[in-house]
Design goal:
Layout lengths: L1 E8 L21 H7 L6 E5 L8 H6 L8 H9 L3 E2 L10 H10 L3 E3 L3 E3 L6 E2 L1 E5 L5 E8 L3 H4 L8 E3 L2 H12 L5 E7 L20 H7 L4 E4 L6 E6 L2 E5 L7 E8 L4 E9 L7 H18 L2 E5 L8 H7 L2 H14 L3 E4 L11 E3 H7 L6 E7 H12 L2 E4 L2 E4 L15 E3 L2 E5 L8 E6 L2 E2 L5 E7 H4 L13 E5 L3 H11 L2 E2 L7 E4 L1
Parallel strand pairs: 1-2, 2-3, 3-4, 4-6, 8-10, 10-11, 11-13, 16-28, 17-26, 23-29
Antiparallel strand pairs: 1-14, 5-9, 7-8, 12-13, 14-15, 16-18, 17-22, 19-26, 19-27, 20-21, 23-24, 24-25
């Protein structure tokens, strides 16, 4: 009997130290804690599933630095990582930044559906590794093919992102007969409910269910959805997924006799706060610079802007959303604005620091202004209205925003338009009133609407935006825009209008 042990992480999002950066409190998380937990030998593989170099204040700070050695790669090297694949957020800071990470990384980057047109990046589709016990292990990496939809075009100039399933099938069929164990590393998740087998999405963003059903991996390591998943089998394939932000890692054990894989088990492991001391000390000067930057004051608000319950904000509006829209309206000089929140959001104190900003607006979004008709505006608001489920007099967040992954960020808050949702009406018919400057909006009316580049791509149910003419693009990241706004307006009075009204 031959055994293989796998340690797996995904969606680490650059959380290196044991902190979430919302404050300075030490928490049981972080890559330094994870790598200190590994016990590697000649029959162990350590693998990461992508979304590694973006997502934390630490990585936001790094993105503006000129790096000789990428700190995230240093941590991965210290942890003994063997393989990684690319997540969608690996592309957020452009080609050169990704190159600085991959060039310094000891692990092999496997991503069979991403082609580097320059042939300069160390990206390959698959690998075969013979373990110390003689076990031949095939590893194929692949990522969501929605990257071109989400990512800014100029960040993908040197890349071709191909159809995920088509790309992996040929490699899979060639590799399977050559190896004892076949592993897939997929930055993507499941398009079906794993309990009921109900289809949750018809897009190709997540196709892990299809991969398990139609291909023959022994182990499929998944990510992107941030859904904890352990010790399950789907169509004969063992499946695993870790939560995000370096809060747990997966451990997988594979056993094979002379002919077959006989057993696969997995667990999601938490850990004590005992970080790798060498890397902790090595990167501490950088971490101290990050913390100093985060504590820099930028301006003052007339009120605190703390998020409330997601459902409460959807029903009653949010001053925090009003504030973000207020900034967008000024910088874009347009009629209307919309914004959304990440699944986790910090909010602002009256005295605002950089920490407040980067912990509240966590994505490197830029802005796009599109010309929208009254008809399109209503379509967008109907998507928002579908966020609220109203059954037997009870309000809740609709299942479509919770599965196949939690997507509160697909609920948009609008400013400069008053709108009414009648929750007693069917989804798609709930927007019963829209007013701009005191005038009822007609389907043929046109407005300039500023939104982030992610929403402008049409994802999350807003595909109609793609057909709306682009008036302008503001290629500055929102964190920088917010900081610049405070430089211009040291003391800010927040727009306190309530734009949304509810009938139930």
């Amino acid at each position: 009997m031959k055994e293989l042990k796998i340690y797996f992480t995904s969606d680490l999002h650059g959380y290196v130290y044991p902190t979430d950066y919302t404050d300075t409190t030490i928490k049981p998380m972080g890559m330094l804690n994870i790598i200190a937990s590994y016990q590697k030998d000649g029959n162990t593989l350590i693998i990461d599933g992508g979304d590694t170099i973006q997502g934390s204040p630490f990585t936001t700070f790094l993105s503006s630095e000129k790096l000789i050695k990428h700190p995230i790669a240093e941590v991965m090297n210290a942890g003994g990582y063997d393989y990684i694949t690319l997540g969608n957020h690996e592309f957020n800071y452009g080609y050169d930044y990704l190159k600085s990470y991959l060039d310094y990384l000891n692990a092999k980057c496997l991503c069979t559906n991403v082609l580097d047109k320059t042939n300069q990046l160390p990206i390959q589709g698959y690998d075969i590794k013979t373990m110390e016990n003689g076990l031949k292990v095939g590893i194929i990496g692949f990522t969501t093919d929605f990257i071109p939809i989400w990512e800014k075009e100029y960040n993908l100039t040197n890349f071709e992102v191909r159809d995920t399933f088509t790309s992996i099938k040929q490699v899979h069929d060639e590799l399977k007969p050559q190896v004892d164990v076949l592993i897939g590393i997929y930055h993507g998740g499941f398009e079906y409910d794993l309990s009921t087998h109900e289809q949750l999405s018809t897009s190709s963003e997540n196709i892990a269910y299809k991969v398990c059903k139609e291909l023959d991996f022994n182990v499929l390591l998944t990510g992107h959805q941030h859904i904890p998943l352990q010790n399950q089998t789907l169509f004969g394939t063992h499946i695993i997924q870790t939560p995000h932000n370096a809060t747990k890692y997966a451990e997988v054990h594979v056993q094979k006799d002379d002919h077959h894989v006989t057993s696969v088990t997995s667990s999601l492991n938490a850990f004590e706060n005992h970080p790798d001391q060498v890397m902790y000390d090595t990167l501490l000067p950088l971490e101290n610079r990050v913390q100093e930057w985060l504590d820099c004051p930028v301006g003052y608000l007339n009120v605190e802007l703390q998020p409330s319950d997601r459902l409460d904000m959807a029903i009653n509006g949010s001053l925090l959303a009003n504030f973000i829209n207020q900034i967008q309206l000024e910088v874009a000089e347009c009629d209307l604005a919309c914004t959304s929140f990440a699944n986790a959001v910090k909010g602002f104190n009256k005295s605002v620091t950089v920490r407040d900003i980067v912990s509240t607006y966590v994505y490197p979004n830029t802005l796009v202004v599109r010309e929208v008709s009254g008809k399109v505006l209503k379509q967008a608001l109907e998507v928002c209205a579908s966020y609220i489920d109203y059954t037997n007099g009870e309000l809740s967040v609709s299942k479509r925003f919770l599965q196949p992954k939690v997507a509160h960020y697909n609920y948009d808050f609008f400013s400069n338009v008053e709108y009414t949702f009648d929750l007693t009406k069917p989804v798609g018919e709930r927007v019963v009133n829209m007013m701009v400057k005191g005038q009822e909006v007609n389907p043929t009316d046109t407005f300039s609407l500023v939104m982030n580049n992610y929403r402008s791509s049409g994802v999350g149910g807003y595909e109609f935006f793609r057909d709306c003419p682009i008036i302008k693009e503001i290629q500055i990241e929102m964190t920088e825009i917010i900081i610049d706004y405070f430089k211009k307006h040291q003391h800010v009075t927040v727009d306190d209008r309530q734009f949304i009204h509810i009938i139930k």
